[in-house]
Structures are given as structure tokens and as C-alpha cells.
Amino acid sequence: MRVCISCRETYDRNYLIKITKDNNQGIMLQKGMGRSAYICKSKKCYSDSKIIKKLQKALKTSLEPEFIDIFEKEITSYNDNHNKGI
Ligand SMILES: [Zn+2]
What we know:
By secondary structure, the protein is α+β, with helices and mostly antiparallel strands. The chain is about 35% helix and about 25% strand. The structure holds zinc ion.
């Protein structure tokens, strides 16, 4: 069980998006080794306007615009899957 950095609820790993500051490869989604933060797949959390700020604080790093793009696409895909009932 992990805590969502936005709502502070605990969830099963499967319900969370993992963002890791990998020691060698920088920020990664759903993989990597290092300091990690979790965001649950509820819309109010991943679409929170402050989520990038919260992430940066949790990971103690600044996020590149390139990563933010990838992150937003990833999150949009979760939303699509949700709409399809997957
Ligand atoms: Zn949450």
C-alpha cells in the first residue's frame, strides 16, 4: 500500500501511477530506482492543477517540461482506459 501525494489516501500499487527519480536515468514513470512518489488514478488527483508542484516537492527535484508532457500524456491514457471501462 502506498500513499497518493495528492489526496494522502493509501491505495494498492495497481491503482497508483509511480513517478521515480531514478539515480541514473532521471525522472521515470512506472519504473526506475530511487526516490518515488505515487499519484492515484482518480481524476481529482491527477488533474489537480498543483500536481506538478506536489510532485516536485515529493521528489525534491524540478521537473523538465519534457517530462511534464510525457506525464500528461500518460495520465490522459489512463483517463481513456477508464472511459472504455478497462
Ligand atoms: Zn489521490
